[in-house]
Amino acid sequence: MTMPKYVAIAIDGPAGAGKTTQAKLLAKALGYTYVDTGALYRTLALHKVLAGQSDACLNYDSFPVVEELLDTAQITFGYNGQTDQRVYLNGRDVTNEIRTPEISAMASRLSAIPAVRAHLLDMQRNEALSGNVVMEGRDIGTVVLPDAQHKFYLTADPLIRAYRRGKEMREAEQTFDPVDLVKGIMERDYNDSHRETAPLKIAKGACVVDCSELTIKETTRTLLAIIALNNQPEA
To answer: Where does the pLDDT of residue 3 fall: very low under 50, low under 70, confident under 90, or very high at 90 and above?
Structure first.
């Protein structure tokens, strides 16, 4: 029996570029399922915190320690509709708990560990085998779904990204230091782009979209226009 060929849209880019917002809007507009792969790494970081391990407690170079962390974390996705992705850690909904600067920083360091990426890779790819998806993260077009029909690299100026992230945190009633937020964005950019395993970079064939001066709606229209153009049959 031949498996159906589903459409995958991959959106990569640095922290705070608007990947989550745009992926959700594209999924809604196209009737696809939204998948936030970064939530896997954030959830693993939260699992470490809940286990009473500060960042200094985890030896990132110790395979047995990392293996134990992976073995005790059961991470699953759930969906309310196509775009409301919920993330569960050992059966508990932690969707809102994983959106803090501390968790994001830990997630970035965990994602640089080859064993962690290998452990989560199949789970990410399996999501794309179950239906049409819009998947966002750091290495979707380069590693997870290199054959995705549509690949984007969404970016923006670091200060603008920090401002947008701060706005999200205020709306979620989370406290933060603006200076630390900018510093964290720039540090994560460096860490993500310089790690040895699956570094953040522009995927082959990806369309780069700088949304520094675009509104959310303008960015969505731009992405949809590119998808429509790519879908046109060759003359």
So the answer is: very low
- Residue 24 carries which side chain, given as an amino acid letter? K
Closest CA to 82 of 138, 26, 22, 9: 26
d(CA 145, CA 140): 5
Q: Residue 2 pLDDT more than 50?
A: no
Whole-angstrom Cα Rg for the chain: 17
User: pLDDT tens for residues 30-57?
Assistant: 999 898 888 899 999 999 888 776 554 4
Beta strands in 20-149 (DSSP E): 33-36, 75-80, 84-89, 92-93, 133-137
Using alpha carbons, select from 232, 206, 70 the residue that is nearest to residue 147: 206
- Strands in the chain per DSSP E: 8-12, 33-36, 75-80, 84-89, 92-93, 133-137, 150-155, 207-210
Cα 179 to chain centroid, rounded: 23
Q: Identify any residues that bridge with 75 across adjacent strands, giving them in sequence order.
A: 89
CB contact at 8 A, 13 and 193: no
Whole-model pTM?
Answer: 0.81
Q: Which DSSP category does 203 fall into?
A: P
pLDDT tens across 116-170, in order? 888 888 888 888 888 899 999 989 999 999 999 999 999 999 999 999 889 888 8
